[in-house]
Amino acid sequence: MTGEKYTTVQDIPTAHHCVVQAPFLRHGTHDSSLRTKFDDRDDHEPFGKDQPSFISVHDSFKSQILGSSASIQVIAEDSKAFAHEAGVWVESTQEVWLTSNLYFDGQQNAKHPELQAKRAEISKLAIPSGKVTTRDDLLEHILTPNGGCPYGSYVLFCEQGAGPDRPSSFVLVDPKDSSKEPIVILNNFYGRHFNSLNDAVLLPPPKNVKLGSATTDNSSLPGGPPSGWTLWFTDPTYGHEQGFRQKPQMPSQVYCFDPQTSEVRAVADGFDHPNGLCFSPEGDVCYVTDTGSVHGNGDISHRRPATIYAFDVHWPDVDMTIGGPTLHNRRLFAFIDVGLPDGIKCDTAGNVYSGCGDGVHVWNKYGKHIGKIFLGTYCANFCFIPGGRMICLAEEKIFLVEGLQVEGALLEQKI
After folding, report:
1. Could you tell me if residue 317 is inside a domain?
2. How many CB atoms lie within 10 A of CB 339?
3. Which residues form the SMP-30/Gluconolactonase/LRE-like region domain (predicted)?
């Protein structure tokens, strides 16, 4: 543990700032509402104090989300952006696996000059000590890692790829046996390159769904997910925009991969940059974030999405080898007040959490914004861990949130 514990709860209902004294100014991507500029005044009281804290917008945030001793604490930090994405809890080893952002290390990759002397890495965070161990041995297998999720007894990583000869792919890592070679389970859409796979999540089937018979090697992967589980993922164009991927061959879409049949289907389109995704505890609603307001080349437009969309999940009344789950009734669930909605998760009560420009924002299942875990910095992703805890990945820092009344909806997917 490295930092002090922050326990302050700020009550800032929307009525506090419906009308504020002009002139006022705030950058929608870089500045929290707590940093709104009021001409030459330093009085930011309508929006609260700029320090790590819990911001309660609705009473339910305090009564249903926060415990009496909720706290925020930095438990690891570095000078580089080592804590960017993934965030996969491994119960058996009490570790969180994470990926870094691309950072400049000055070492040119002879095979992939398009990386421009940058690299990304995979690490694991020990709980509760906060010790971070980098897995450099995985670099040759997963060159540009991003998102991740549990996949049976494995950690699945989204490899964004590099150039034309390093396709974007899903790679499985055994977190308990470093001697095992990583396994690629998908790297194309019927011969076309994915753009740059970003995030993924497993969805179990409802109890009444007809599963059918296993028909492929993927379905019999030792330690893989149970029969009937499907892998859902996003594929934006960040790799090309950041200069290490070829020109996109497909739209930015959401896909569903069925390990039982090896079928991969596009299930939702019309996004600028689909990013994070998750499901409600019952699996009947899919949430997808769109981070289109900031492109990979640094171009920012506040007229593009910084938005969470919701879809209804429909399951077929036929054998899953004949028909799979589909998405319907697309609707805007939330627009973010600062930064981008990147990683996204649900708790077991159906509340929705997303890593945004100043921390983790929280909505109830009806789309009402009820509060924030305010970190004062960008949080790309996060994960729940048992015991009312959360790990927040904030580039150069990792925060531990403790004392919550809620548990993550994905914690039953134990590794």
Report:
1. yes
2. 27
3. 231-387
SS3 category, 204: coil
Distance (Å, whole) CA 91 – CA 154: 12
Residue environment code for 215-231, b if the CB has 16+ CB neighbours within 10 A, otherwise e? eeebbebeebbeebbbb
Alpha-carbon distance 299 to 61, whole Å? 35
Which tens digits make up the pLDDT trace of 330-348?
999 999 999 999 999 999 9
Identify whether 339 is part of a domain. yes
Secondary structure class of 65 (helix, strand, coil): helix
Cα–Cα distance for residue pair 346/280, rounded to 1 Å: 6
How many CB atoms are closer than 10 A to CB 136?
11
Q: Does a structural domain hold residue 396?
A: yes
205 HSE (CA, 13 A, CB side): 26
Check the CA dihedral 14-68-334-100 and report its sign.
Answer: positive
Range(s) of the domain holding residue 353: 9-79+201-404
Taking the C-alpha atoms of residue 377 and residue 394, their distance in angstroms, rounded to an integer, is: 7
Q: What is the pTM of this model?
A: 0.93
Answer yes or no: are the C-beta atoms of 182 and 171 closer than 8 Å: yes
Q: Check which CATH number belongs to the domain holding 16 and give it.
A: 2.120.10
DSSP states of 87-127: EEEETTTTEEEEEPPPEE-S---SS-GGGTTEE--EEEEET
In a domain, 59, yes or no: yes
DSSP 231-251: EEEEE-SHHHHTTSS---SS-
What dihedral angle (degrees, nearest 10) is formed by the CA atoms of 401, 405, 408, 413?
110
Residue 198's H or E segment, with its range, is: none
Number of domains forming the structure of the chain: 1
